[in-house]
Amino acid sequence: MEYLIRFFIGGFAVSAFAVLGDLFRPKSFAGLFGAAPSIALATLAIAFSNQGAAYAALEGRSMMIGSVALCLYSLAVCRLMKRYELPALTATLVSLVVWVLAAFAGKWFLLK
Questions:
Q1: Residues 73/96, Cβ–Cβ less than 8 Å
Q2: For 76, which of 18, 58, 63, 95 could close a Cys bridge (C-beta 3.0–4.6 Å)?
């Protein structure tokens, strides 16, 4: 039953975010609006129904920390590739340190 709920919530959210992505320019935003938000909404809806509001709130905060860590990782990769002209593999591997540190710092901040 959980998979069926996830399927319907995810499908609805993907469709809604695809419409949003179609409204904005550049069209490359369509992919950004398509996948991650819909999966996150489906996961939060299931967490809310199975575990309650407090658990879903914790999940939501964890997702926000993860997105900040991913943003910092992406900025680090871009900076290393543009400024220092590192190859993509090297830049991504070095930037993993930024991602891990940001994620653990966010987790530490969340638990305080």
A1: yes
A2: 95
Q: Which two tokens stand for residue 65?
A: 């920390």
Task: Give the mean model confidence (pLDDT) for residues 86-101.
Answer: 96
What pTM does this model have? 0.73
Report the distance separating Cα 48 and Cα 58, nearest Å: 10
* CA distance linking residue 106 with residue 48, whole number of Å: 22
Burial class (CB in 10 A: 0-12, 13-18, 19+), 52: exposed
| pLDDT > 90: percent of the chain | 52
Alpha-carbon distance of 45 to 40, in angstroms, equals 9
Q: Residue 66 is encoded by which pair of tokens?
A: 């993860």
